[in-house]
C-alpha cells in the first residue's frame, strides 16, 4: 500500500478507535504511526491495542510504527470543600502543603519541589492557563499569590510553572513502570513528556536499553532553551504545542515551531508537529480553514509527521480526520511552492562519506530521469540521511529487520520494505529493483539510484552509490555471476 505523500500521519488510539475494524480503517485512510497514550487506560487496554495493530500489520503486509507516549509528572492542586471557588482579579490566594480541603483563600499543592524552586514574581498557571497567579512571597511549604487572571478553580486542576526549571525528573514512578511495560510489549518509539534538560532523555534511553527509540516532547520553556542539547541525545522530537501555548505567550509558538522543526531536519532526526491540528473534527466532520492551514504549514516546514490526538482517539469522526490530513498532505506536496520552500530551507552540514553519498544520490535523481532512491539500511541511519535531503523522488527503505522498518515509518518519505539479508552487492541491486517494480515506483524501462554499504549488514558502512536499470536482464549483463 503505497502512500502518495512523504509526510507521515500519527493517529492516537482511544475509546472510539480500539477495535480491529476502526484501527485498520485508520491505517487504510493514511495513518502510518499509532500513538498509545499511557495517561489513559490500563496496561491491559494498551496491550489489546498493540495486539490489534500488529494484526493489521500482518494482514496488510506493511510495517506500522507504534509510539507509546509516557504521561510524565502531573502537577495538580488538591480538592476544595465546596468542589470549586471563583477567584477574581486581585484576590489573594495561598498554595500550601496542608491536606485540608481548600476554600476561597487557599488550596493544597502537594508538590514541595515546586515551593523549593519558586521565587517572588514567578507565575503559576492553573487549568491550562485559564487562571494565572503571581507569587508574592514563598517558603518551603507555601506560596502566597495574587490572582492576575481570575476564573473558577476546582478539584485537582493542573498547574504549570513556566518561569523556573523544576527539580523534577521527567520520569515518575508510574512512567518507569510504563516504560518497561511498553518496551517489553515491543513498541517502536517512546515519547518522553516533561523534558527540561538532556539528562531527562539520557535517563529514558538508559532504561529503554535500545528496545525502543526515544522521542523528546518539547512542551516546556526550559526545553526550548536547552533544545540543542536535548536534540543531540534524542532519537526524535515532538513539538507539543499544547503546553507550550500555556507556558509561553501563544503568539511565540509558531516561530518556535519553525526553529525546532528546522533544527531537527538538519540533524536528520524525525520531528512531529502535534496538538489541536484538526481540533474541530472531534465534533464536526469538516475542519476549519484555519486548521487546514495549520496542518499545511507544518508540511511546508518539512516536518516528518503531523499528529492527531483527541480527533482520532475520542472524536466522532476519526476516519474522516485521518482522511482530511492525508488529503491536505497530498495537496500541499503537489504544489510547486512546496518544493521551493523545502529546498530553500535545506540546511545540511555534510561531514562523512555517507553524507556525501546521499547528497549525490539526491542530485543524480533530480538531474536525470530516476524514479526512486533505494537505501539498504540495518539501523535506519542512512535512510534518515537521505530523508534529510528531502529528495523529489520516493525513498525505498530496504532492511532485513522488522524493528528497523517499523521505526522508519516515522521518517519523511520512507517507504519501508522488508528484504532478505544480502551478502553480495548484485543481490542488493536485484532486491532493490524488484521492490521498486513490485511497489509501483518504477517499470522495467526505468532506473533507480541505490545506496548501500559493503560489507553488508554492518551499521554505518554506507559507501556505495549505483544507478541501476530496473530490467533484470541488464543487471545480469553488467554484473554476471
Folded structure, characterized:
The chain has 481 residues and is an alpha/beta fold. It folds into three domains: 8-72 and 170-335, Phosphoenolpyruvate-binding domains (TIM Barrel, Alpha-Beta Barrel); 84-160, M1 Pyruvate Kinase, Domain 3; 353-478, Pyruvate kinase, C-terminal domain (Pyruvate Kinase, Chain: A, domain 1), CATH 3.40.1380.20. It contains 18 helices and 21 strands. It has helices at 20-29, 43-60, 112-117, 173-185, 198-208, 221-225, 227-233, 241-247, 253-266, 289-300, 310-313, 318-333, 336-344, 353-367, 381-388, 402-408, 425-438, 472-478, and strands at residues 8-13, 33-37, 65-69, 84-87, 92-96, 106-108, 123-126, 131-139, 142-149, 151-154, 159-160, 189-192, 213-218, 236-240, 271-274, 305-308, 370-376, 395-399, 414-418, 447-453, 462-469. Helix 10 crosses helix 12 (318-333). The two termini are 33 Å apart. 46% of the residues are buried. The mean pLDDT is 94.
Summarize it.
This protein has 481 residues and is an alpha/beta fold. It has helices spanning 20-29, 43-60, 112-117, 173-185, 198-208, 221-225, 227-233, 241-247, 253-266, 289-300, 310-313, 318-333, 336-344, 353-367, 381-388, 402-408, 425-438, 472-478, and strands spanning 8-13, 33-37, 65-69, 84-87, 92-96, 106-108, 123-126, 131-139, 142-149, 151-154, 159-160, 189-192, 213-218, 236-240, 271-274, 305-308, 370-376, 395-399, 414-418, 447-453, 462-469. The protein has 3 domains: 8-72 and 170-335, TIM Barrel (Alpha-Beta Barrel), CATH 3.20.20.60; 84-160, PK beta-barrel domain-like (M1 Pyruvate Kinase, Domain 3, Beta Barrel); 353-478, Pyruvate Kinase, Chain: A, domain 1 (3-Layer(aba) Sandwich).
Amino acid at each position: 500500500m503505497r502512500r502518495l505523500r512523504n509526510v507521515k500521519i500519527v493517529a492516537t488510539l482511544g475509546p472510539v478507535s480500539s477495535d480491529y475494524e476502526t484501527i485498520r480503517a485508520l491505517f487504510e485512510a493514511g495513518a502510518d504511526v499509532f500513538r498509545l497514550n499511557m495517561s489513559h487506560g490500563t496496561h491491559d487496554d494498551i496491550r489489546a491495542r498493540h495486539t490489534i495493530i500488529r494484526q493489521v500489520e500482518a494482514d496488510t503486509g506493511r510495517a506500522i510504527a507504534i509510539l507509546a507516549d509516557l504521561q510524565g509528572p502531573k502537577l495538580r492542586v488538591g480538592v476544595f470543600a465546596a468542589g470549586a471557588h471563583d477567584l477574581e482579579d486581585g484576590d489573594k490566594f495561598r498554595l500550601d502543603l496542608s491536606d485540608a480541603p481548600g476554600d476561597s483563600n487557599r488550596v493544597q499543592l502537594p508538590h514541595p519541589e515546586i515551593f523549593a524552586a519558586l521565587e517572588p514574581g514567578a507565575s503559576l498557571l492553573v487549568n491550562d492557563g485559564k487562571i494565572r497567579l503571581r507569587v508574592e512571597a514563598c517558603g518551603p511549604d507555601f506560596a502566597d499569590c495574587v490572582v492576575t487572571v481570575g476564573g473558577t478553580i476546582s478539584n485537582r486542576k493542573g498547574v504549570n510553572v513556566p518561569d523556573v526549571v523544576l527539580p523534577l525528573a521527567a520520569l515518575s514512578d508510574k512512567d518507569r513502570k510504563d516504560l518497561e511495560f511498553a518496551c517489553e510489549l515491543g513498541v517502536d518509539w517512546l515519547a518522553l513528556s516533561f523534558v527540561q534538560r538532556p539528562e531527562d532523555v539520557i535517563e529514558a534511553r538508559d532504561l529503554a536499553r535500545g528496545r525502543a527509540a526515544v522521542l523528546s516532547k518539547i512542551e516546556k520553556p526550559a526545553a526550548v532553551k536547552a533544545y540543542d542539547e536535548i536534540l543531540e541525545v534524542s532519537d526524535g522530537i515532538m513539538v507539543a504545542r499544547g503546553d507550550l501555548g500555556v507556558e509561553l505567550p501563544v503568539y511565540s509558538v509558531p516561530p518556535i515551531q519553525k526553529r525546532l522543526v528546522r533544527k531537527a531536519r538538519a540533524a536528520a532526526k524525525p520531528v512531529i508537529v502535534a496538538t489541536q491540528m484538526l481540533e474541530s473534527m472531534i465534533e464536526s466532520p469538516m475542519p476549519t480553514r484555519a486548521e487546514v492551514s495549520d496542518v499545511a504549514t507544518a508540511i511546508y516546514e518539512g516536518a516528518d509527521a503531523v499528529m492527531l490526538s483527541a480527533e482520532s482517539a475520542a472524536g466522532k469522526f476519526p476516519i474522516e480526520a485521518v482522511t482530511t490530513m492525508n488529503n491536505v498532505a497530498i495537496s500541499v506536496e503537489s504544489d510547486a511552492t512546496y518544493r521551493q520552500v523545502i529546498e530553500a530551507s535545506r540546511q545540511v552540514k555534510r561531514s562523512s562519506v555517507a553524507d556525501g553519498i546521499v547528497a549525490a544520490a539526491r542530485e543524480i535523481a533530480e538531474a536525470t530521469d530516476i524514479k526512486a532512491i533505494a537505501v539498504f539500511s540495518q539501523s535506519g541511519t542512512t535512510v534518515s540521511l537521505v530523508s534529510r535531503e528531502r529528495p523529489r523522488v520516493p525513498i525505498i527503505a530496504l532492511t532485513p529487520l522488522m524493528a528497523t522498518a517499523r521505526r522508519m515509518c516515522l521518517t519523511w518519505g520512507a517507504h519501508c520494505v522488508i528484504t532478505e539479508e544480502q551478502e553480495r552487492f548484485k543481490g542488493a541491486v536485484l532486491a532493490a529493483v524488484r521492490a521498486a517494480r513490485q511497489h509501483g515506483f518504477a517499470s522495467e524501462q526505468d532506473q533507480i539510484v541505490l545506496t548501500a554499504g559493503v560489507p553488508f549488514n554492518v551499521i554505518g558502512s554506507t559507501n556505495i552509490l549505483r544507478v541501476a536499470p530496473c530490467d533484470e536482464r541488464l543487471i545480469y549483463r553488467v554484473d554476471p555471476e
